[in-house]
Amino acid sequence: MKLVMIHGRAQGAKDPVALKKEWMDALGDGLLRADAKLPPGTIVEFPYYGDELDRLIQEVATPLGSDALAKGTESDAEKGFRGELIEELAANAGMTRAEIDRAYAGEPREKGPLNWEWVQAILRAADRVPGLGSRVLDTFTRDVYVYLTYPGVRARIDQIVLDALGDAPCVLLTHSLGSIIAYHILMKRPGVPEVPRFVTVGSPLGLRSVQHHLGFRIGFPAPVRHWFNAYDDRDFVALHPLDAHNFNVAPPIENWGNVRNYTDNRHGIVGYLADPVVAAKSVELL
Fold first, then answer.
1. Going by C-beta distance under 8 Å and a sequence separation of 6 or more, which residues neighbour residue 154?
2. Is 174 helix (H, G, I), strand (E, B) or coil?
3. Which of 30, 107, 158, 252 is buried most deeply by CB count within 10 Å?
4. Are 199 and 282 in contact (CB under 8 A)?
5. pLDDT tens, position by position, for the chain (286 residues)?
6. Residues 90, 93, 95, 100, Cα dihedral to 10°
């Protein structure tokens, strides 16, 4: 059976061969710790969409939040989505209202996701939070916004992944934005092959702001037989399980919350795949 790995955002201008090797090396490390192996003859696909996503973001001319504020180009829909997502991620990272208030200079004004000045205050405060930073928040929310709200962008990125899936059953191993892309395909694209196991790591699907803008009601994807989700409770993108409280679907998703991502980036793929439970679950049904 085929294993299809779907990477996250911020992979533009990188070598897809080297990226695939990074994933395989980390998975191999995890399998060694789990005393498990990738079955001989397993075909591993790594659909690379990093350059195409970057190109499409430039094509639709969606700027970072700081640029949008300066140019006044943002719509209310964009303000609402990106502001809501930035607020939620900042809260997940442990940022307090008092910290944001200190960065919110000037006369008292409306506070909330539709006010870019308030959002900019969050971004400024984020630079004081270890492991966060304004650019991480800003670029993450822009990329997710573009994928979820521009049908042409979504169709192109989806097709890159669909071409790798093929027609036969396959296991999906996904990270970060890659889990949103895979979930959208599984829910909305006809003809997706059976997926004995859908593995999501570092997934933003538990974020309310993401769920509100998927364009459909959350549910359990019909092609999927079993969904396994792994998270690190220090990963501000994915610190909550996809459980009845955060992602209420039936049958329930199996969650693994004991990942301790040893890399400097708690959201990084290497630390997730090196976890023995994650690695073993990724190859168990191949």
1. 147, 148, 184
2. strand
3. 30
4. yes
5. 999 999 998 899 999 999 999 999 999 999 999 999 999 999 999 999 999 999 998 888 665 555 544 444 456 666 677 777 777 777 777 776 676 666 666 544 554 444 556 566 666 666 566 655 556 667 777 888 889 989 999 999 999 999 999 999 999 999 999 999 999 999 999 889 999 999 999 999 998 889 988 999 999 999 999 999 999 988 888 888 999 999 999 999 999 999 998 987 888 999 999 999 999 999 999 9
6. -30
**Domain ranges across the chain:** 2-55+151-283, 64-149
Quickly tell me which residue has 């200079």 as its tokens: 105
Q: Which two tokens stand for residue 247?
A: 């992602």
CB under 8 Å to 226, separation ≥6 — which residues?
196, 197, 198, 254, 285
What whole-number distance in Å separates Cα of residue 64 and Cα of residue 50?
17
Query: CATH topology for 2-55+151-283?
Result: Rossmann fold (3.40.50)
Q: Please state, as a whole number, how many other Cβ atoms lie within 10 Å of the Cβ of residue 201.
A: 30
Determine how β-strand 2-6 pairs with β-strand 198-201: unpaired
Is the C-alpha dihedral spanning 4, 53, 216, 135 positive or negative?
Answer: positive
Enter the pTM of the model: 0.86
Is residue 115 within 8 A of residue 109, CB to CB? The reply is: yes
